[in-house]
Amino acid sequence: MIQKIYNYFWSKDKYFIRNIRELLGFVPTNLFLFKQAFIHKGSNHNSNNRQISNERLEFLGDALLSTIIAEYLYKKYLHEDEGFLTKMRAKIVQRKTLNRVAEDLGLDIFLKQYNQLQLSDSMMGNALEALIGAIYIEKGYNFTRNFVVVRILQEHLDVHSLEKKDENFKSRLLEWCQKNGKVLEYELMEKYRQQKRDRFKVAVIVDEEVIANGSEFNKKGAEQIASKKAMVKLGLLKKM
Predict the structure, then answer these.
(1) Domain limits of the chain?
(2) 108 is catalytic
(3) Sheet of strand 197-206: strand arrangement
(4) CB atoms < 10 A from the CB of 218, how many?
(5) pLDDT in tens, 20-29
(6) Choice among 13, 71, 129, 208 that is catalytic
(7) Residue 110's closest CA among 51, 57, 66?
(8) Adjacent-strand bridge partners of 45
(9) Which tens digit of pLDDT belongs to each residue from 35-73?
C-alpha cells in the first residue's frame, strides 16, 4: 500500500500511473509490462541489450480479442449461423475499428510518451491489442473479458449499427469472385521502410490479372485498401 501511494504521488512514473489508472481502473503491479504495450518497434527502445517493443503483447492481445468477441457474439446472437458470427467478428476486429476505439480511449497519450515517431492509425490499434495482452498477464482472463466487453464493445462500439455495415472489402471481393467463378489472389509486391517502419505494398490479382494495389503499415490493411480499389475498378463499388 505504501509503495502504491509513493508511486502515485512521487514516483518518476506518477503521470503514467495516474493515466493508466484512469483508463483501466487499477494501478498495475508490473509497470514495465504496461509501458511496453505502447512501445513501437521503430522507436528503438533497449533494455539489457535487447530491443523492447509491443509486438509480442500485440500477438497475445489479438488472439484474446478474437476469442472474447467470438464468445460475446455467440451468446448475444443465439439464432444466427456461423457465417453471420464470423462476419460480425471481422467487422469488430478490423484495423479501422480498433484504431478508432484506441483513439477514443486516449491511447495516443501513452504512445506519444514512449515513441519518437509520427503516430499512425495502425499504431493505435496495435497498442490496443498489446494493452489487452498486458491486462491478461496482470489480471487473468475473466478481468480481460470484462474490460473488452464493457470498455470496448459496450462503451465504444455500436454493435447493432455494425450489423448493417460491411467494410470488409477483402471478404466482399472474395464472395463476388466465388459467385462468378473467378480466382482471387493477393501478392506482396514490395516491403519497404517508411518513417522507420515496415510498409507493405500488396496487389490484387483476379484470374491472373493485376487489378489494383494498395500500401499500408500492415499487410492486412494493405489488402483491404487494394481490395477496395479493385472493387471500384470492377464496378462493384462506387468511387469514394
Answers:
(1) 2-163, 169-233
(2) no
(3) 184-194, 197-206, 209-216
(4) 18
(5) 999 999 988 8
(6) 129
(7) 57
(8) 52
(9) 999 998 877 666 655 678 999 999 999 999 999 999 999
Closest to 168 in 3D by CA, of 235, 240, 104, 92 = 92
138 included as an active-site residue: no
In the set 13, 22, 55, 62, the catalytic residue is 62
- From the list 186, 211, 181, the residue with the least C-alpha distance to 200 is 186
Architecture of domain 169-233: 2-Layer Sandwich (3.30)
The label of the residue with cell 484504431 reads 99
Residue 26 pairs in a beta bridge with none
Place domain 2-163 in its CATH homologous superfamily: Ribonuclease III domain (1.10.1520.10)
DSSP 94: S
Instruction: Please list the alpha-helical segments (H only) found in the chain.
Output: 2-9, 14-24, 31-36, 55-76, 82-93, 95-104, 108-114, 121-139, 141-147, 159-163, 169-179, 219-233
pTM, rounded to two decimals? 0.69
Cα angle for residues 18, 11, 151 (degrees, 5° grid): 20
Give, as one character, the DSSP assignment of residue 42: G
**Secondary structure letter of residue 1 according to DSSP:** -
